[in-house]
Amino acid sequence: MKKYIILMSFLLTGGLGLQAQNSEIPSSVKNVETKVDSILFMMTLEEKVGQLVQYNGSWDLTGPASEMGNKEKEERLKKGLVGSMLNVLSVEATREAQKLVMENSRIKIPLMFGYDVIHGYKTIFPVPLGETASWDLEAMEKSARIAAIESVADGVNWTFSPMIDVSRDARWGRIMEGSGEDPYLTSLVGVAKIKGYQGDDLSDSTTIAATAKHFAGYGFAEAGRDYNTANVGEYELHNFILPPFKAAADAGVATFMNSFNTIDGTPATGSKMLQRDILKRDWNWNGFVVSDWGSITEMIYHGFSKDKKHAAEIAFKAGSDMDMEGGAYEAGLLELVEEGEIDESLIDDAVERILRVKFKMGLFEDPYRYSNPELAEQISYEEHREVARDIARKSVVLLKNEDDILPIKSEVQKMAIIGPLAADKDTPIGNWRAQGEANSAVSVLEGIKAAAGDNVEITYAEGAPLGIGERSFLMPLEINETDKSGFADAISKAENADLVIMVLGEDAFQTGEGRSQAKIGLAGVQQELLEEIYKVNQNIALVLINGRPLEITWAAENIPAIVEAWQLGSESGHAIADVLFGKYNPSGKLPVSFPKAVGQEPLYYNQQNTGRPYSEEHVTFSSYTDVDKEPLYPFGFGLSYTDFEYGEIQLSAEEMNANGEIMVSVPVTNTGDVAGKEVVQLYLRDLVASKARPIKELKGFEMIELNPGETKTVEFIIDEEMLRFYSANKKWESEAGDFEVFVGTNSRDLKKAEFTLNK
Ligand code: NOJ
Prior knowledge:
The protein has 759 residues and is an alpha/beta fold. Among the domains are: 384-585, Glycoside hydrolase family 3 C-terminal domain (Rossmann fold); 644-758, Immunoglobulin-like (Sandwich). The chain is 29% helix and 18% strand. A six-stranded mixed sheet has the order 11-18-17-16-12-13, with helices on both faces. Strands 4-3-2-1-10 form a five-stranded parallel sheet. It is globular. It comes from Autumnicola patrickiae.
């Protein structure tokens, strides 16, 4: 009845008319919901199911391609039986595909065009793990904004980003795509990214729809092996995995993507508990869920469905709204409704969700608004690169700097730049590089040459190649394990230098999808090269270019300076040189723990205490007998060219009520000779609770800038909401009792105070 009234009022006020352009939607029909319902009313069941289907364009495969040929896809587009496409790039190509729908289909529902815009579109920013190390939310919002602008200039109006999978395992290849091990930091970064992509108004033709992915548990793949089972209990799920997704839903992210893994025995794609109950019901989120690539059909391999139709039934009932290049919904949904297995009202709900996003994007007003050739001409890629340089240098983390070897001193007259990644212009672009051109980054060598001036003699030697053969998204990477023919040249150049800059790490295609590793040291012959160089010259600054935490214990013990420079994107070499020469004083902090040995993984700071945290007398406590349990570099760690001294914590009160607050203040002084930035971090611990709580959890941070000798008092407010967790009562609540509060420069070196919550 409701639908009938809506339709009548719609038709009486002008109506859409089956052949009419959707721009003719009468202005009196203002409300998006009314518009959505009006369109839905006119759709046949076949057309509705069509909206739940996503096709891949043949440009950029990121998984096994479907069997359907392009001709058949085209026919189905013309009939209006496709809701969106992915990997269709360029204004021309997206216009072409949109035209097929708009000029041939009955109801003319515009397509959305999705793509993996993960860390930039053409201008490439640091890989997300690296960018998170900046702890600079404004900067991260800005890079997403730029990525959005460059995307729409190429017809793309929907990104499958941000990836907000908390991950504690350096072996997992996709750890580079997320924000590391902490749910609070990941939540803030996710929201900043969503704001950057979506802006305040999704219909603005320079914004794109964002996707919170992968829902859920993908980052907890057992043994860090991609696509593997996630064994996660309810407590772990709610306290550590879901918070970033809740924050994304609250921030109005347009879409969610589910994930490949099973979680507690159920494929996430088929999990009603996750999608329908938590996301759509409890969080009251009204966007749509897209499956991951073929993840509906993959439930057959999980042993969870017997065929495509069965997979479609499970995924759809569970709340997956759109089938990414899987063919399951196309194969099964129509029949399932006709057979009465699926209620058409459920189909309507999914279609409504998709139409709602399309309305918000303004696609019904102008289906071609994101395929605008003029936009590309207005973009200043040069300006974007300037921003990329700034964010890249903010993302660098100084791990070690013995005897202040850095910044490079003016006495250094001869520098040897050595290593397989020193002159590499491709690796800094990283994996998931969208339309970032191969070999387009500024290399470290180029950056150093540009910054050093004419008085410094610079020599270069590769030492040994890292990856050999063809490199691409889908192909396995071959690492050089044998060729050391360049060692002699590198050694002789090192012998003659005042300072050696060694540039080692990982190839761009050592991390990313399907790139999990059981070993996380310096791959190939790099460790050997480092040790050989060290024999002839110990004055070494090691620059690491990588997408995951590496096991670099030997280097940490022997090499005087270590700079974590991730894969920093287009302006990598300039940004690294800015840091090496002291033009930028490093301020980055690790968003993930670095292990002493790979056997410590998964490794994370916000762990539980265990019943046997420590013993001086015997071995029967929770550690290892060969390596201690502490990380090499803890979460939140990062040095500066200056020193910061923390005073004692002052609390405004030692007790608080549920509606009260306590102010925590700490004076921080720059005791060094240069100005610097510091990320002051706040952690809390709930000492006794209905569930064992972590030994500390990040709850706040502030970046301050101090001149030499300057002191600032940093203040944090603690309120009851910050003390909540998913408790034994299966709800978010705080529990009365004692808490510890910590403030400091990283998750290990902290000042401590205590307070009590009374309820
Ligand atoms: C599979 C990946 O898991 C997902 O993150 C990505 O967005 C899709 N492929 C599309 O490329």
